[in-house]
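Moderator note: this is an archived Q&A kept for reference. The question asked for a predicted structure of one protein chain; the sequence and the answer are reproduced below.
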Amino acid sequence: MKRSLIIILVILVFGVSSIQANALQDYEQVAQNEYLELYINPETAEIAVYDLATKEIWYSNPPNRDREEKVARGKSKERLGAQIILTYFTQVGAEITMDNYNDSVIYNQLDVTPIEQGVRVDFTLGEEWGQDSFVPNVMTEKRFEEE
């Protein structure tokens, strides 16, 4: 009986460890104290906090949302990947909503910088260089021949 309990306990411990390892495979540990570990996915800026006492993981964004989310569609589903949503009004009163996933992460416009006991994440919202910024659509013959 005692041996069976030990075997079950060992299986549970190793099972939880492998689940944690798989759950955080895209994340890097960036800070730790006696209670918590902080992880970040440097590609998306998503964070995860691992509670050392309870062995639970808290995520800033729903994990596996691509496979498991069945209700949200389009921009709403993509917005589940955002940590920041910003709504503002233009001078003519148009409401604009941006988020750091659709307007920064997908353009690879984020920088993750290590700081003491954590990281700093800088986002550039809005596509910095549009597709038309690289080559003009139309150029006059005169301009083309200029040096």
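Archived answer notes: The first strand starts at residue 28 and ends at 32.
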